[in-house]
Structure formats: C-alpha cells, structure tokens
Amino acid sequence: QVQLAEAGGGSVQAGGPLRLSCAASGSTVTYNSMAWFRQAPGKEREFVAAIRRSDGETYYSDSVKGRFTISKERANAIVYLQMNNLKPEDAAVYYCAATERRILSYRHYYTDAYTYWGPGTLVTVSS
What average pLDDT does range 96-110 have in this prediction? Predict the structure, then answer.
C-alpha cells in the first residue's frame, strides 16, 4: 500500500523561505509525476507545482512561478518544494500528490490526475 507523507510545514514571516518534502513509503512504485497542491480555509484545493519523471518538465501556477521550485530525487520517491519570498496568501495546508500513470502536460494541473495523496502539512505566513 502506497503512502505519501509531507514534512517541513511551519510558520514563517512574509518574505522568508520554507522547504517542504514529500516521501513515499510502503511501496517501491515509481511515480511518473508528483505534484504539490494547497488548500486554504474556505477555499478549494489549488494546484501549486508538479514535476514529470519522463523528461523532468516542471509546471507551476502563475501565483508561485519565480518564487517556488519543485525538485525530486530517487526517481520521484522524494519530492521537494522550495518556497521563497512567501506571502500571506501562500498560507495553506500543502498536499503532496502522485500518479503512476504517464500523463500529458496539461493534465498536471488537475487534482483528478493523481492517485495518491498525503495528509498535508500546514504552512502559515505572518506579516
């Protein structure tokens, strides 16, 4: 049974950095794509960033492009999200997601493209 677990959440002042990680356990499955989504109170879950194993292509939402960086190691067994210049609007529960399936570029932005989800890690940003 595949499990994903996020780590690295916490409280940070606006403008500061934070690094999140997501690790798989309980399986030797190779994930073809891994991603980060986030959800703030009262809002729907939104896409943040993704990375594809086949070519290393990365995808970012417009709101985080240039500030966040997604990376991976161990053939997608671990994925990171380096967040810089954090803003109060970045505060949310951040979720790691993964899929074994090979998906086209446009599919990376959608929650239903992913099979596995972590329980989330909370990020708060103070001003």
Answer: 93
